[in-house]
Each structure stands twice: as C-alpha cells, then as structure tokens.
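Recap slide: Two-component system response regulator, sequence and predicted structure.
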Amino acid sequence: MIRILLAEDMHMVRGALVALLSLEPDLEVVAEVAEGTAILPNALTHRPDVAVLDIGLPGIDGLAAAGALSQQLPTCRTIMLTSHADSANIARAMLIGVSGFLPKDAPPTRLADAIRRVHRGERVIDSEIVVAAFHHGPNPLTERERDVLTHVAKGSDVSDVAAKLYLAPGTVRNYLSAIMSKIGARNRVDAIRIARDRGWISA
C-alpha cells in the first residue's frame, strides 16, 4: 500500500482527488491539507510515501513545502500539480528533487500511475507542461507579487490581501501597480488574465 499526503486548497478538488485515489486498491490517502504550512507537520506525523502537492497553496507554496520535505523526510517522494506551466518553477522543482510534475486536469488514472512510478524511484514530468513553460518564458513576478495577485484573483480586495499577507493596504496597491507595469496590463483584471494564461499564478 502506497501512503499519500494530498495538499490542495480547493475543498471540492481535494475531496474529488481523495475519493478517486481511494478507489485504487494499492493507494491510501493518509493525510489531506489545504495550506502549505500544514504539509510538513502532517508528513512527519503520517509518514507518507508520496506527497501530491498543489503548487499554488496559501501559507507557503507547494515547492517550498517540497523542499522542506526533502530535507526532513527524504523517504517521501513529491509530485507537483499545477494549472499552468512556468519554467522557473520547473527548474526550481528539479533543484530540490521533485519527482513528478503534472497538470491539475490530468485524468485520475494518470495521477495514480505517476504516484506508483515515483514511488518506484522514477521521475514523471508531463511533456506538455515543459513545452508550455519554456514557450512562455520565466515568471517576471517576485514571490510577494505572485502572492498578492493570487489573492486578488481569488476575489480578495486590497484590505483582505493586506490582512492575509500582513501588509499595509498602500503596500498592496504599490505591488499591484508594479505588477501591471511589469507585465503591461491595463488593470487588475487584465493582470490576472495575463498571469494565468502564462502560468505565472495558479488558476
């Protein structure tokens, strides 16, 4: 039995993945979390064989959590799930020893197969993600700018983003202005569209 930790902040998506993976006779989801900060504590408690992590998690992102896992629980392999490709994230993932990189809309059977393969010690990187990532180029946004835009994309207003990221509202507005200037967006909605299309923030 392959023990799995699943990290996904969207409740319905996480529930569907847990249900589908549980149908596989050799797979068992031993922990499910919604925030990046919950990954390592749960992994150390439940000792999963494979961690399946959404790259765009609140708290700390999936790649940062994967890096912590590789240091503190090296027996646990990691698979990243992403809605969009980003060459910088793929390069970062390779450096920290991530075993798999799959699109979030991959069929459940493909995810199950990837879990089995990385558990055997293989590396599974989706070819379409790689091609798309290097077509769009590196992400020009800083980590903080991505955090701000991701929260805005999820419907948070400036005050909400400021509270969540422990920033002043004026600082959030400055970040948004810098983002729009960097990527040539007309407004916040356009900035979200551009960043999502190019895989610079999660959908």
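Strands lie at 2-7, 27-33, 50-54, 77-82, 100-103, 124-125.
The mean pLDDT is 87.
(End of recap.)
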